[in-house]
Structure formats: C-alpha cells, structure tokens
Amino acid sequence: MFNAIALFPTMRDMHYRESRDGFYNSWMFLCTYIAHVVPFAMLASVIFATFTYWAIGLNPQVVRFVFFYFNSLLLHLAGELIGIGMLGMIGDPTLANSVCALIISISCLLASGLVRSVESLPTFLHLLSYLMIHKYASELFVVNEYSGLELDCPQQGAPEGTFLENR
Asked: For residue range 28-63, what is the model confidence (pLDDT) as tens digits?
C-alpha cells in the first residue's frame, strides 16, 4: 500500500497525459504497474516472512515457511491493489491512505475471525466476509500452522495445580 501511495499519483498523472495523447489505455497501464510492483513485493515479503516466521517460532518446516511466504505475498499484493483502487478514485494521497487503512483494518477485524467468529456476525457482514482477503489468509495461516499437530489433552479435566483447582 505504501508503495502505491508513494509512486502511483505521479504515474497516474503521467498516464492521464499519455492516454489523452493516444499512447496506451488504462488496462495496459495497470498491467505495467503490477509487473513493476510484483518483484519488489516478492522481495519485501521474503524479508518479512524470514524474520517473522522464525522469530516467533512457528512450525520449523521449510514447506510451511513457503506457504507462509506466499500468504504474506498475497496480503502484500492485495494491499497494493486496494491502494491503487483508492488512489484511482480519490485524488488526495493522504485521504486515500486513510481510507485504505480503514478498509484493511475492517477486513482484518471482521473476516479473520480473530475478534469474533465469522458465523456469529450479522448475515450481511457474514456474506460480506467472503469478499475479504483476510478471511482466506487467516484460514490459510491456521491450516498451515496447525495441520498435523497432535495435542494431548487430559480427559478428566485439568491436572492438579492449575488455576481450576482454586475455584
């Protein structure tokens, strides 16, 4: 999103001028911009994923790290596209940045299920969550981290010495 906020306004103005002169259309401009952004998004995502994944001690398998990296890349590119969309509709970069931050925050809070389960949301928001990228990214993260994990839980309640004993 920050890359879009920094680069897109000047490129958008150049696009308006050159498309008016008949050099290229909007679709070609968008494809070129995405081709320009993807390598930098890949580099930023690999740096983020490398430090974050190993620093917080997630599952130490390389295949799971690669899935975490692609999940991070997906979120990065979605943020870029939301930023481009807002900058295309709103001329002021500061206002577009604020609107993008709100959209991404609302998407994360509503669709990821971290604050409230998606099933317990009102019907309209529950249906809207299927359009939000954070729903799929959080599900992918949970499946990636916890699949194949075996947890041992006692069948007769908590063992002695836990907080449940002092009720």
From this structure: 878 888 888 899 999 999 999 999 998 998 888 999
- Distance, first Cα to last Cα, the chain: 49
- Answer for the pair 12, 87: CB distance below 8 angstroms, yes or no: yes
| Cα(138)–Cα(143) distance, integer angstroms | 9
CB 99 within 8 A of CB 90: yes
pLDDT digits (tens, 9 = 90+) for 77-109: 988 888 888 888 887 888 888 898 898 888 888
Tokens of 8: 């897109």
- In the numeric block, the tokens 């974050």 are attached to 52
pLDDT of residue 15: 77
Distances in Å between the Cα of 83 and the Cα atoms of 6, 32, 131, 132, 163 are 10, 16, 17, 15, 47
Average of pLDDT values for 139-143?
90
Give dist(CA 102, CA 146) in Å, integer. 30
User: Contact, 19 vs 29, CB < 8 A?
Assistant: yes
